[in-house]
Amino acid sequence: MSIHRYYTLTLSEKLLYTSFLLLVGLGYLMATAYLYVTHEMNDTKPGLSVEDVANSYYGNRSGTRLEAAIRGPMSGFISDDDRESMVAWLKDGAEEEHYEPNIKPILTKTCLNCHVASSGMNLPDFSTYQGIHKFAEVDTGMSMASLLKLSHIHLFGISILLFVLGFIFIQCEINVHFKRFLVVSPMLAVFVDVASWFLTKWDSHYAMVVIAAGAVLGFSMAAQILISLYQIWFLKAPATPAPPLK
Ligand code: HEC
Fold it and tell me: Whose CA is nearest to atom 11 of ligand 1?
């Protein structure tokens, strides 16, 4: 198929292209903001960091939410001896057989004043083993099922988006090598991004790759959108007919 040039487009086509490009740009900003607000507190510190990304795929395997709570915000409700017994139980695998004799009495002392359904405080209920066990498991990050779901939605959705975006973008006039780079780089970035989610689940160091791939995707999309928008409206037809586009 021969490729149009922006200056041969009708006004209707220019308006269609432009509104699409603007909406995609806005969508990208929204996606970035969404990632920020949903991930920034993963490591309990404000601001998005490599740890936040690592925690969401790899999890925080150094401990459980229960241990973090009794060392942190809930530490005032438990004595040092009781805390030690509870941590020992957690490190031992939080077995049900030790729950009734060793752990339930500790919980009953103060925790259950608040952590039962009847307290009306809408807090996790610790009056049963099942209730506390959810907080006693090592946090291994996103489940395989969630990862697979997120991956196929991203791969299908973003590749169609990048195809339409790229189809508009290849009508611009820039250095042909740079053009080919900008066409391929976001597709490659999406692939590397998705692959690195799985790698991060296995080894948290790959969180760096997730971030790098996201940055390449952002850069390539921004370049495609801005170059296209500029040339659609400001590139003038040359006096002599230009050679066909590559
Ligand atoms: C005075 C009421 C009160 C008592 C007593 C209390 N908690 Fe809590 N607990 C809360 C509230 C409120 C929250 C939710 C806010 C927060 O996370 O700080 C909470 C949250 C938690 C969480 C969830 C943290 C997370 O990761 O989301 C855990 C685990 C927990 N408490 C454990 C305990 C244990 C163990 C005890 C007893 C040693 C205890 N709490 C005693 C009020 C209480």
Answer: 123
